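Input for the complex:
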Amino acid sequence: MNDRISALSGQALAIMIALALGAMVILAVSESPLHVLLTLLDGAFGNPERILGTLLQTTPILICGVAACISLRGGLFNIGIEGQLFMGGFAATWIGFSFEMPPVLHVMAGLGFAAFAGLAWVAIPAFFRARYQTNEVVSTILANYVAVLITSYLTINIFKRAGGAPDTPPILESAYLPQLFSFSRANWGLVIGLVLAIGAHFFFTRTARGYAVTEMGANPKFAEYGGIDIKKQTFFLMLASGAVGGLAGGIESLGVHHRFMEGFAPGFGFDGVIAALLANGNPLGTIVTALFFGALRSGSLLLEVDTTASREIITVIQALIILAVSAQILVRRRATDSSAGERRWKF
Amino acid sequence: MPRAIELRSITKRFGSFVANEGVNLAVKRGSIHAIIGENGAGKTTLMNVLFGLLQPDEGEILIDEKPVVLPNPAAAIANGIGMVHQHFKLVPSLTVADNVFLGMEILKGGLIDHAAQIARTAELSRQFGLKVDPTERVGLLSVGIEQRIEILKVLVRGARTIILDEPTAVLTPQESRDLFETLRGFVAKGMTVLFISHHLEEVMEVSDTVTVLRHGKEVATRPTAELTKSDLVQMMVGRLVSFDRRPRGPVSGSRVLAVDDLWARDDRGLHALHGVSFDVRAGEIVGIAGVAGNGQTELAEVLSGLRPSTHGSVRLGETPLTGLSARAIRGAGVAHVPGDRLVRGVDRNASVSLNLLMGRQDKAPWSRGGIINRGYLADQSKALIERFDIRTRSAAAPVKSLSGGNIQKVVLAREFSGDARCLLIDQPTRGVDIGATEAIHTEIMRQREAGRAILLISVQLDELIALADRILVMFAGRIMGDLDGGAVSEERLGFLMAGVDEHGHHVEREMAS
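Predicted:
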């Protein structure tokens, strides 16, 4: 319990330090940090439309965050969620414009294929991690670039819509993931994200399989001794993480863009990983951290209009948070795990 | 002869645990001095005191016959002491020379003078016969060469006395011989070597003087030439008086565990088991005695499926276990109390009840349809905490908040409460206080009465004599003898543990070939 409190206060302290540094950067570009903060809050939560705008940005970060939590709990680090998101996004779009189906079925087919595409995209890194202990951080990062370029190739060279922009044809209306309210593009993906987060929490704390992978992450030697098949669990956990990453992409294309284009959903995969790390791999905590990042993204739109600060300031603040949180995790790990090698991922 | 190092009545406590008690140590300049003792005898603590890593609670340290205070390793280094730790601290992406000079780089105009570092490393390497290529990247090198780099690091910092903590534990026989050659070279140049070991042969082969530690106390310091291996064993393990033999009925059960001609390799790829064969019957405790590092750990690992065997067979009743996974062996009915309980036996950050769940999370009534039955887990945790007298605030408290003895009780509670027919118990009371030890012994006897077949591995002879129906003595991966636990002579055990069989023949270890 004490651990949890110290971990939480550590994260909070890290964010405070990052925000303080961010304030100094804002000062340096001659703006009042308070004004920027208030504008951010106003932009993120100022009226119902803005709140829904924030939720719209939160949705993919949350789902990618859950994907990251799934791997982190097992001591694995799937940093290739960005790539799985792109593959899933393209896969769902393809189902959306290529086939005619009844409405609900069409959405389910699209999301299902998106999850499959994410799963397939992580399968090779997962196999090599499970079988040969290849570092999954490296292999999944590399797979990101390939995913972005492949989907870009498919969009521009194979499926490009007639006319100017490098987009695919739009999906049929039967494949639209319904909006929550008529005045915002925020959609049922948010509900799916919340269900996934709660489901992942239930899986890790209440099921036998969830217990097995949690122990594999906490102390692999103990798990092995207790009869847990490390290779098998590693493989399937990575696949599950990839499937959720692919689903995030499918929700973006069926719920928001209704087509696939270059620069589709940039950075959501990475933001999701950061949100999960900030929440210590806890899916419920990721709901909060994803909302935080969603608010930053959404609030920054108003920042451009109402202040002299550029919206890139948000990227700076995010980078500072990443830095502070990694430093904080490193310090805490050094303090508590002097007995080395319990967690397999290190920063 | 002048004394390079002298420790006078050093006492070091960790809480209520006394790691070193009034230890005296005098090391002559220009000699190789071995410190031998079982795991937990206080060897490493003593060396950490000498290297300034730990502060003694009592006693004084003299270097070159002058009293010194060593608040940190830097002070020890300034006094000409260097330490080569068991676990190397090298940067794999840097070259040998860069590693040697890490933290004390030779600079030229504010930049690292790589050429000078390489030249100096090459010179030291030649001077002391430590063959290394200074320009090679450390990540590409073998463990033996990494150790040479660690030694070079110590030399370049001007050490005249070098402490090595279990230097051969990670080395192959050839690398060990090279190391001994190097150490002899050091003393020929007037330097002093202190090395920690629990390997009798090494101590006999390379040291001039040996100090034996037992339970944190200095038992003896003698010239090595005056001692035999059996003498050393006697001094290391001590007299056999701590526990009374537990009363028991005769063994009448049928054969449960059958091990036949089992061979296996250790982490270095050397044969750790050389054709081990034995049986354990239901309601029988078979003890495995031996100085640590003679294949006992590997035996437990092979039997529990955590290490592959290279030859031979293991059967549980009529079921062959050879080559099965840890999971399958558990499923067949073998429970395992591991020797390294903090590494393998528990997840220290998880609660007592989640630790009690391990290994049966898939089984009803612990879980149903994949969902953990939390009510049942809570009830069972409460019952096991009570029955095994685990002293904890609650079942939800993390295991790391418990004392060593209570952590071990958590492991025992889990392993003994299943339906295993055979129990592998490795070092059940290592690091456990006397009260908990008595309770653990009582519990093991209760398991015997319940008709389980028990293989008990321990480096504590008094424990084996208190509990075992038969005692098998292991030396260099072989079983040297099979003794009746009720009628063992101390002397006989000592000979067998030192590798001398009943006909007086010495069994040679692989490294001596």
